[in-house]
Amino acid sequence: MLPSISVITPSYNQGKYIRQTVESVLSQTYPELEYIVVDGLSTDDTLAVLEPYRDHLTLISERDNGQTDAINKGLRRASGDIVCWLNSDDFFLPDTLMTVGTYFEQHPAVLWLTGDCLIVDEKGAAIQEPVRQYKRLLRALSPSIYMGVTNAICQPATFWRRSLHDKLGYLNESLHYTMDYDWWLRLNRVQAPAVLKQPLTAFRIHAESKGGSEYEAQFAEDYRLCCQYWPNTSVRWLHKLHNELIKTVYRQIK
Fold it and tell me: Is there a domain that residue 222 lies in?
């Protein structure tokens, strides 16, 4: 029997993109889907965009303390066997939830899984294919590489059993950029993820993307987490070197 799936979308002033996000979820035709959108009182047209979909999703619209708080609100409200979050500028590819639900049904011992994701621009066109292929290569190696030396997990393509929250709690709301990386490392202490090669989602990069405009602070927070979870000094050194190389590339292309 297919497990039920809950998808959480945290939202704030992403009216330009959220229609595609919502439609990518609601068009999945998955038989046991719960969709929760948590909006932090957007001041753009987000709520107007969401209005026609109100009968097909649960909308929580209230002030929050940022993205992580919004995600946690949705996760605490969720009732699905499997959960994930999909940011309001990203989107699912067709049949993603059926692929995920079927995998969990056929592999009852698997606690979480991650797949591939496209990287797209503001218009949804694929970009940065070498970056995507590099991360695919890393995920074919050991977790100490794709979660130690760097974070090669695709956040919008990652799903886990909701029962894990009883053991691990929820996302760390003190983290502003790397709450996903922290969550992967906590999950990894329980079990390494199943890794699917196929693309499940699209991760959008645009001018307002937090990771693109505040990458220095993001990498600093990222390295602190690496030091917290990986006692191996070689992994830490390689992680720091990897971050410095990426920051060098960022500075050159900006």
Answer: no
